[in-house]
Structure formats: structure tokens, C-alpha cells
Amino acid sequence: MSAALTFYTNPMSRARVARWMLEETGLPYQTEILEYGTSMKAPAYRAINPMGKVPAIRHGDTVVTENAAICMYLADLVPEKKLAPSVGSPARGPYYRWISFMGPLEQLMVAKSTGSKLPDPGMAGFGTEEDLVQTLAGAVEGRDHLAGDSFTAADLLVSAYIGWYLQFQLLPALPAFTRFVELHRGRPAAARANELDGPIPERA
User: Fold this and answer.
1) What is the pLDDT of residues 108-142, one digit of tens each?
2) What are the angstrom distances between the C-alpha of 101 and each of 72, 106, 146?
């Protein structure tokens, strides 16, 4: 990889997921830490991500935002690492499915964390909370990997998000969830990422 890779982050954010993925790739990258309300909203960074949010990566002239997109983009940069199933393989379907499933999960978790009234199930992307939790638990129950027989970006993203929401007591501590999180958070790349970013403060 000849183009420079820059990672824009704040350690106290979901950008920790992208950090873990970067460490899995083994690619060299530079880190720019942005502060909430100041450098994250400054014109220089808004030129990279007009939303003024992290994470983002810049790879040469290419900018990618959103954890799911960053994970998939980085996985494709290092096919030798097999962080994504090969294009056209049956495992590519569940790979896309469970990475994309984190969108509805995040919608529900944000609503719960802010005390907002949950939308009508017919209108909400996640349906009902019960259906979402049961579907996610069923996906990880008794399984080590979500897409094929080896670790992929789908396992990384899903285990990271489940772990995040378990820590903040927004998801029930089901055995299927805790097992899946513990299985993957022990990876060397996850340990390196956590060492770089430091601990996550406990929720008050």
C-alpha cells in the first residue's frame, strides 16, 4: 500500500472500533485525535467529514467515514489477511448482513440511552426491541464466526458493538452475547487497539 493512511478519532467514541480494525490489517497509519466541540467541528476536519464526527480515514485521496464502511474498506485493502470472505462466496451474504445489522442496533441503543420514546415498530428500522435482541442473540449463539469459518470484519464489528452496549447496560447480558464478546476481544489486535486508546470510562 503506497498511499498514506490517516485515522481521525477520539478515544472516547465508537471510533475505537475502527482502531481495532486498523490494527487487524497491520497497515501503517497516522492518528489524528480530535476533540469534541473544537477540532472535530473545525473547518479543517469538516473538509474531510462535513458531519464533524469520528471515525474517518483518509487513504490517499479517498475518505471513508462510518465504522461499517471503514471496516469493509480496510478488509478489502488486505485480502491476504482474509478479513472479508472472497467476493462471490456464500459467506459474503452473512458478512454484509451482520455488518449492516449494526445500523438498526445502534438506532435502538441510542434511543434507549437518551430515554427517547421508541418509535412504532412498523416504522422503526429495528422493529421491536425484543425481535432485534433475539435475532442478534440467535446469530451469535454457539458460533465463533458470523461469515464463514474464520474471523472477519463482521465478527469484529458485531462483537465490538455488543461489548460496547453491554458495558453501558443497554443490552441484556445474555450468555450468547458475553461469550461472543470475550472470544474476540482477546485477539492481539484488539489488545493493541485498547492499549492505544486507553480504558473506556464506566457509565455514571
Assistant:
1) 898 888 888 777 776 667 778 899 999 999 999 99
2) 14, 9, 12
Q: From CA 139, how far away is CA 132, in angstroms rounded?
A: 11
| 55 and 110 assigned to the same domain | no
**Contact present, 12 and 201 (Cβ < 8 Å):** yes
Grid cell in block for residue 108: 435502538
Could you tell me if residue 35 is left (phi over 0), alpha (psi between -120 and 50 degrees) or otherwise beta?
Answer: beta
- From the list 26, 6, 14, the residue with the least C-alpha distance to 164 is 14
Q: What are phi and psi of 181, to 5 degrees?
A: -65, -50
**Does residue 100 sit in the same domain as residue 64?**
no
Q: What gap in Å lies between CA 114 and CA 129, rounded to an integer?
A: 15
